[in-house]
## 1
Amino acid sequence: DLFKRMKETDDHFSERFYSPVSPSSSSGLEQRHVWRFSVRPRGGKNSKEHVSAFLWSYQSDYEREKGLSSRKIRYSVDVYRSAPSDSPGSTPNLVKLKTKRGVETNTFNFFTHESAWGSSEFCALSEIFPNNERNQKIDLVININFFESAQPTVINDGLSNNGSVIFRRYSPSLDKYFDNEAYSDVEFSFDCGSKLKASRVVLASRSSYFESMFEGSWKESKLFTIPIEGVKYECFKLLIRFIYTGRLADGLDFDILMNLYVEAEIRNLGELRDLVSSQIVCHHQITSENWEQYLILGWKTNNRVLKEMGLKYACDNWDAVKDTVGMQRVLSCGVTKWVEELMLARFFGYKSN
């Protein structure tokens, strides 16, 4: 069904699952790793005779609190095809398929394109469909094994590790003081009429942007109510809450994330920007209706992951995007080198740097 009904570029994601599945103690429950698995039934642009498969890592609450921005794991992914049994009414046999991956060890970095590992040529369609009978109904069983020899690592070298920086700079969490009038000496006002209260000390101690704002040279340093223009209240509230807690809620709307990424970039909140980028990449599907947003934002903010996603999607789906409003936006952006990069990728093939 997946092979027949899904488009060439569609990924099918599993629900979140955990390792270990059954921890030996209640404390182990907190330390479980969070994962999702994705398959693309028709592979990539140059691997349409294969199924692509990737294992995706997600930072758990425990890893976030402990300052872990990476996870080193030894694992294997096995695929089985369900074959009819010789005896009527008995359980079908499982036939293990040949794949391009065996037991391997990888470091999953939550805030980069290395948050997922896998292969665009994971398993050949000829393995899945015997005798090339692709109208045949096939059930696949995917078994992921995690081995205990590789443990998650904490990198304590300071600024080279996003997770450690987030943990130190935004620890402890001050969530109970967030938007609390009793602990506030400044408020932000918005076009919608909403107001958000905060503490100058908290903001300045955890953000160089707000430290500059309140030190005296900016006009805002003299104001109790600071107007925030051109930014939605919901977006700015997420930004301030991050400064207080070092956390970002899951499941945020795509447009909110895009706006929040820009605000984090403007206000020099690199850690928030990386978290937002991770959510965009891991939780939202790039489509013909939003591909140019990935590309333009990647160009504007020098985000290689977002830029490459946009370029790859455009090249793989040129007929679907060439006459869209998104393409008009890209071609009329006014930056010649961006348009040249897209055209070069189109005519000579896209290659990741």
Note: The two ends are 35 Å apart (CA to CA).
## 2
Amino acid sequence: MFLGNGYTDSLTCFYCGVTIIKCNGDFDPWEVHAEMSKTCNYLFLKKGKSFCDRANDVESDEIKSNQLKLFKLIAAKKNTLTLKSKMSIQSTKKHFKEIKITKILSDKIEEHLFQKLAPNLLPDNMLCKICYKEVIEVAIVPCGHAIACIDCALSFNYCSMCRMSCSRLIRIHLCVNKENDENLKLKPCTSKISSGDELNPKLCKVCLKEEMLTVFLPCRHVYTCVKCAEETSECLVCREDVYSLIKIYL
């Protein structure tokens, strides 16, 4: 969120305080922000690290290397990495030697991840529990609670659900709107649900039985329960390979 004073062509980031001067018609405040303030957490959560890296001309090989570090770390921990005895990051059945992070993959993930959902089309239990205006957009590390939008989550020192210290935030994308549901190539469902029944929007989009509880890495889409996630090797939304899972709590 940028704030203007109404008198000059300048914008100020509400979070880090950097001020940007508008230069021309092709002016992109996000790109200029990434160049001037590389460590702004609000920028990272809104636009993604790969966007910031490209704005600062970071070599693509270095970007790929950074994205592979997490997966290799998980593999070294016998396929399950635990953060502060709370959040578990589990590898999938994909072989780690097959991992290839390409620019096309990064761009596709970013395109899907940062699509804006319309809050007025979402049920209350999918909205930020602080402001009830925006969709839930982040999960808290290490407790895994996903309860807030970006703006509200950045004010947290402690999780408002469990009071555990908030060490960092993970940007996630809840697949709950009608467009994303139509894009999902759902597996055959054996649950006895009539077409007239109102479905809980938190239900797994694959089995329609359990609640959504997992984040896929690297794409960070959320639409499955733990059991279905463990059987998934390719994200059904963006069609990219899934190498790790994080359990969250909505």
Note: The two ends are 25 Å apart (CA to CA).
## 3
Amino acid sequence: MDLKCVATRAREFLKSEDGPTATEYAVMLALIIIVALGAIGTLGSTVSQTFTNVNSKLPTG
């Protein structure tokens, strides 16, 4: 492989838009996962506290 071939491949790689598109999708997916985990964590705590409150108000026996 000569220097001209390497330079040509480098230019083609830099012109290609497939890489940035895949990267953008990966970043968006990561952000969606982070937001979903945060929402699930917050909602889970709230639901747990609600069930604890309901359980404490139910009569025993």
Note: Residues 17-55 form one domain.
## 4
Amino acid sequence: MLYYAGLTSRLGNVDAGDTVTDFLPAERERGITIQSAAITFGWNKATVNLIDTPGHADFGFEVVRSLRILDGAITVLDAVAGVEAQTEKVWAQASDLNIPKIVYINKMDRAGAGFSRTVREVVSKLRTPVALVNIPYFRDHEFKGVIDVFSKSVIQWSGDGKHVEVSPASEIGPDVAKEAQAARDALVDSLSIDEEVVDAFLEAEEDFDAVPSDLLKRALARLTQSNQIVPVLCGSSFRNIGVQPLLDSVVEYLPPPKIEAAPQNTMQALAFKVRYDPIRGPLVYVRVYTGTLKRGSTVLNTTTQTKEKTTKLLQMQADQPIDIAEIPAGSIGVLVGTKDIKTGDTLIAHPTKKDGISTLPQDIKKTKLMPIEIPEPVFVSRITPVSVADIRSMKAALDILLREDPSLNLSYDDETGQWLLAGMGELHLEIARDRLVQDLKANVEVGEIMITLKETLAGSANGSAKRESDNGSVSAVVEIEPLVEQEGYKLTDSNVYSVRHPRHPVLSNDEIAAAVGVGITPVLASGGKVGRRALFELNFSVKLDLAPELQSTDAISAAVREASLEALASTPLGQFTLLEPVMKVAITVPKTEMGTVMTDLSSNRRGHILGLGDESTASDDKFQQMASSMYAPTDHTMYLSKHEEQQAQPAVLHAHVPLRKMVGYLTSLRSITQGRGTIQMTFASFEPVESRDIDQVLTH
């Protein structure tokens, strides 16, 4: 896209590690996308803000935070692999946010590529009607270009991809003309859910060709933007085929930014990403929703209620910055030099005064734009400084790492004196380690990757404490119970707390509640009695008796901490339960290998089989019927595949399995299935460890 938009003079290759958007050393070395990258470019008199996101499940948070600020999405599918488990997951997330989508089926030049098979999977697995904007054109079973369905013309590319030849399908040959006609008839039929198309079709006396292409394109835009249909295109980006039509479709069918006036005409923006630059410092990526963010303005972070000045604004083209004076509504830009802004923070500014925050009403100062939920990390590594002198630089590097990637979690083990870094997967932590040591130059030792464990209580625990201070006393009574509902003030690891106290003449309710949270937090980290693992899903009910003359909240925090520790100390060991992460896994394998995989999961890995999915069944399903009856051209390259599995219908096994039993499982799966199996894992829940396994789990 950047090549055709004129932003780069060369074509990048993901496998070669030289794409513009994959600019981190680890991305270039591994040939994968790790961090999302924001790029702005022009196409057909429109400005396009493009965010390139990772495909690997370990970096799903990069996708989640990017989805929050999108107007539309391009789903890039591999024509050989088709719709994969991770595709279904991200598609569902985008659908939950009502994001209009376009599908681009890439790698059509590969042996085993199946355009029609993939289109039918889009309909049946992603559960959506589609409209074929173009279809593949083959000459002598070799992918040469696309057939534009609207105009029934064949588009062929050659050389660097900028030389394009367009010919009517009728001039190429009768078979091509027949295919183009069938595709256009099917397109009109697909768009007949739009009233304007139906009226035009009837006025033309049911002549498909007489329905104007411009009318069809307007209808496709309306249906796409209302999430009633998904345009589908194809190509081979590696061979420079099909990219320009995709860009045309982005501008033509996906919606422009929806800009609404905010209360008091304030500027409102969401920080969706932070990246550390060794020269410029933290770069905060923002999407402006209302108003204009101007250089030199003072913004209020409504999360922390702190002010920061926007001394410099940038527009990023991957890692290449361009200085700009302002970021208008609907656009993406970068703030330079901020101190405390994190992913998910909402920023507001006065519409005219550069420092007019103080004049805005209190309700506006509490505005929150689409908060970003951070998933539960399930893998952990120990981080140890090489020497005492390295502690400060290590903490600074870890602060940068966590600000860049909030899906990482850092805790401290008082007993061992080590820091624990938790992440979403093995690859996630490997990349974090490399970033910490190689890029941020932290002089640390990183331990082996382990499984995150938690502890909880089976019953209730009670404790009390009294704390004297120079300006008054505090009495605290704490009751700790298993969590039933997520009501109250939220803490880490799905813990909550509530506070009761008489109205205080000096301290506000918010100040008192915050002090209680400060007191409970270190207690959670200190863990339970089984293995001193962080406490999980508990409800702390706190009752306070505060002296009227009390001026400081420090005594409140201290009393709550002591009462909580007493409650846990008085609880018998048998009341504590060790918890381990259990994963929901979807394993796709040829049917011939399913029995072996099921036996391995249930017998060797303590897996609980949930069921089997087979895309060739469930013929009564609406989308299955739609997929089987829809028009789609012949899959020429399917017959060139050397692998039998491309013709075989795979089956999908769904199961719940303890994560500790799945470490390194992909290698085993490939061995069992001769390299033909794939797996998708997502966190399901924390479940109790069987008593016979506790010692083994704790010492692993």
Note: Confidence is low (pLDDT under 50) at residues 12-24, 30-34, 615-619, 639-647.
